[in-house]
């Protein structure tokens, strides 16, 4: 997802964050501004979490609060999807390994994403050179390239000058092999070369080994809100998605249930509005299983907060969760106006 459409939000809350650059996209702000405005009504709670004073925590019959790593600010990057995906992996790992001090490198995954965009261009794919993406695409890049501990690579950098600089260096070459060589050289010059080894809990590990430790045997699926009532597999409507990315379209009630089931088995959820990706790491439910509030971790201020379920549901566009063997995700998609789209 592309966080640049958050420019207006950050301008309106300038006291808490810097303004962002604009690429001319229509902003979808009011509902999310409502969620963020809860920050003004918050007070400190256990663990330093800011909690909405209008939410009666005492009525919850079912409560989840998974561990999280310290929030990191995405700055002026478009990497909310990277930050959310890695926060999800960190939380899930800490659930499996209590007391862990895991911290994954956002900068290394930024390099992988930029390289992926350019290499697609060299293969003739019609893709934009940008940093946007989806959490499931972050998982795919991790499977391909591995992971790094945050201490082993630099943090994210401003990619605005990097894209045109690399594009200008690669353009003069005519054959693909020469373009690829020039691309590799420019990536190293502009972004640095990740080391061959990294660390897991202070012990040396390869990037592939660290990725396996984080991912295990799990698979992730993005479930998107069906706005036309048609449910099933289909191409992502997100303009930042890679061409091959497929998501599962479902109703809002299904997405809400997926969040509940994921938290109940000790796994965090990447959730998204139409233009931003965040983490749900906890929730309160009443005696009938109805969600009352969610605990949110963001890569933009105020970073951690509790928001009412009603507010989150009003902005909910998608959720990314691990896919269980009996999940409804494994169904086919067929839109009335088109042929069937293949399952991933």
How is this fold's topology laid out?
Layout (H helix, E strand, L loop, with lengths): L6 H6 L17 H8 L4 E3 L5 E3 L9 E4 L14 H17 L9 H17 L12 H11 L16 H9 L5 H16 L6 E3 L2 E3 L1 H9 L4 E6 L6 E4 L10 E5 L1 H13 L4 E4 L4 E9 L5 E7 L6 E5 H7 L2 E5 L10 E2 L5 E2 L3
Notes on the protein architecture:
The protein is 33% helix and 19% strand. It is globular and about 65 Å long. The strands form 4 sheets. Strands 3, 6, 7, 8, 9, 10, 11, 12 and 13 form a 9-stranded mixed beta sheet that branches. Strands 1-2 form a two-stranded antiparallel ribbon. With 344 residues, it is an alpha+beta fold. The N terminus and C terminus are likely disordered.
Q: Structural class of the secondary elements?
A: alpha+beta
Mean pLDDT: 82
The best one-word shape is globular
Poorly predicted regions are 3-51, 325-344
The total beta strand count reads 15
Taken as a percent bin, the fraction of beta residues is 15-25%
N-to-C SSE string, H for helix and E for strand: HHEEEHHHHHEEHEEEHEEEEHEEE
> Rg to the nearest angstrom?
20 Å
Helix count equals 10
**What is the share of helical residues?**
25-40%
Oligomer: single chain
Terminal residue distance:
20 Å
Largest sheet: number of strands, sense, barrel closure: 9 strands, mixed
